[in-house]
Amino acid sequence: MTNISYTPATELLARFRAGTLDPVAVLDSLIETAQAQQATVNSAASLQLVQARAMALEARRRYADGTARPLEGVPVIVKEETAVKGWPRPLASLVFKDRVARENHPIIDKLLDAGAIPYFQSTNPEFCVLGHTWSKMYGVTRNPWALDYSCGGSSGGSGAALAAGVAPLATGSDMAGSIRLPSSLCGVYGFKPPFGRLACAAGDEYLVQAVEGPMTRTFDDLVLMQNVLAGPHPSSFTTLPYTPLPTSYGDLKGMRIAYSPAFGNPTLADDIHRNLMRALDGLRRAGAVVEEVELDWDLAEINAVLLDGLRAVFVDEFMRDIADADADQLCGYADAIRVQGKGGPASLIPSAVLGRQLHRDMHDKVWGKGYQAFICASMLTTDLPADQNPVAEPTIESRGHQYEANLGWCLTPPFNLLNRYPVLAAPTGLSDHGVPTGMQIVANAFDDETVFRVAANHAKAGSSALFVEQFPPVYQQAQAAVA
């Protein structure tokens, strides 16, 4: 069982069906990994083991009597923000330390109905408003590839737990890059669906910048999980009908792909650019015509407008529940947003206006020119400390460049304004200091299958050897100890 930590869900399912693996033994092995990583990576908000072990026994019975479901017996990581009835849900805040979820998020219902076993609750930053993952409640979650560095956020606990080998599937959520940033920094795959593809939680129907989505170590597992999560749910009136994604894809012959490494930003790190170019060469070998286009987007403006829109539809309203007397319990980055909300009402209108302008630019230079997909990096630098504090340290310096510490290093926010665009984050390799790098694969509104087709060919090209030939040091050390 020593290698089970990095076995894909697709393989687990095949071996469960063949009777060569037992769901109970797999869960027990992963629990050991989950407990061991906590001393270094610290990606667990809680472990929910009693119910999980009962579900593993049920999975064993179902395989024996031929009633196994699509994800029967597969352990799953659940982001703390994603509600599971009866599980703690404080949103990493001491202010809400006693809160417990009263009902499941729709995607949890879908996972349970498919036979998956949610058991590992992963960390997120307080109120999910930071691109790293640390809080007063949970401490610092670190990157398994390089412990001093950030695992990203706000789904950083899910990304780190995947990289640490505690389960093959994880949930994430994304309102400014919170799936794509940790997916890229942890070397895994993540999908930000277009709004309406997955059922949202009740009350989030107008929070269109934000969506839930799957995170996995392998491309095939991403398809598997997305096909389970997507589509209507009885509690949602915004979800579109869903046709499952194919499980196999042809090459890219005849496809034209546009790329802009960083929307014209000159501070893109050389190692991220190098890995991106290698990935694009892999797509060319698969038959695609890949050409650079010029996009000159003002990232600072995009970030400011997106954050103002999030304040208007979510953040300010949420922060009103926090009394001034409780402010000392907040992390500095959360309190800064709370204080900002007292300065006056925010508006969603600039987000709508800027989103329309960005789409017109994409149409003029990409979709209207016959390109079917667009690719860019996920961030400008990976030189990000795990405990980076944008309030105390408002500027990040790396290799002669300076970045605004909150979102100034991120290339993800444009596609939260363009929130009907599907965006898939895929790993591209390791940076010079051992942290994974990633790229975003983008398609026009609701064209999910195109981003999966491109990602399938990227995976086949082998441009990234992460979790194939290269594994995080925490795993290598564990294997050495076993040997």
What does the model show?
With 483 residues, the chain is an alpha+beta fold. The chain has a single domain (4-482), classed as Amidase signature (AS) domain (Amidase signature (AS) enzymes, Alpha-Beta Complex), CATH 3.90.1300.10. The protein is 35% helix and 16% strand. The strands form four sheets. It has an eleven-stranded mixed sheet with strand order 1-3-2-8-10-9-16-17-13-11-12, sandwiched between helices. Strands 4-5 form a two-stranded antiparallel ribbon. The chain is globular. GO terms for molecular function: catalytic activity. This is Amidase. Residues 26-451 form the Amidase domain. InterPro entries: Amidase (IPR000120), Amidase_CS (IPR020556), Amidase_dom (IPR023631), AS_sf (IPR036928).
Number of strands: 17
Q: Please report the distance between the alpha carbons of the first and last residues.
A: 13 Å
CATH class bucket: Alpha Beta
Major pleated sheet: 11 strands, mixed
Rg for CA atoms: 21 Å
> What ranges have pLDDT less than 50 throughout 5 or more consecutive residues?
none
* Annotated CATH architecture: Alpha-Beta Complex
Structural class: alpha+beta
Strand order of the largest sheet: 1-3-2-8-10-9-16-17-13-11-12
Backbone shape = globular
Strand content: 15-25%
Number of domains: 1
CATH superfamily: Amidase signature (AS) domain
- The chain-level mean pLDDT equals 96
> What is the CATH topology assignment?
Amidase signature (AS) enzymes
The percentage helix is 25-40%
DSSP summary: helix tally: 14
